[in-house]
Design brief:
With 115 residues, the chain is mainly beta. Helices cover 11% and strands 37% of the residues. The protein has a five-stranded mixed beta sheet with strand order 1-7-2-6-5. Strands 3-4 form a two-stranded antiparallel ribbon.
């Protein structure tokens, strides 16, 4: 897909209330990705304002957290945001993670123990 290097991404929101994993367009471009890397989105997103918005597409990217790597499908959103990405319930469940909003940490099991 053209991504050969590991990039440390900051300002990622882990949102237990989000049903989708979201990648914002600014990060999409900084990763060197283009529209030809996308596949069509299956359905619109409905946010706080209850207005449906069709994502330009979706993309599967490897996400490395600690010693764990998962292939995550993101919906691309072209709207301003203070975040680069949102990792929602799908990512949390696949990681088997326990987010602690109080401690601002995420705990998850690995073959080496809890990270």
């Amino acid at each position: 897909m053209g991504i050969g290097k590991r990039i440390d991404v900051k300002r990622v929101l882990v949102d237990q209330g989000s049903a989708a994993d979201i990648l914002y367009y600014d990060l999409f471009r900084k990763l060197g990705l283009f529209e030809q890397h996308l596949t069509p989105a299956a359905a619109p997103l409905v946010g706080f304002n209850s207005q449906p918005e069709w994502p330009p597409g979706r993309i599967v990217l490897p996400i490395v957290t600690g010693t764990k790597t998962l292939q995550i499908e993101f919906l691309l959103i072209n709207t301003p945001s203070p975040y680069n990405a949102i990792l929602g319930r799908q990512w949390i469940h696949r990681m088997e993670a326990v987010p602690s909003t109080y401690h601002q940490l995420i705990y998850f099991p690995t073959e080496h123990g809890v990270e």
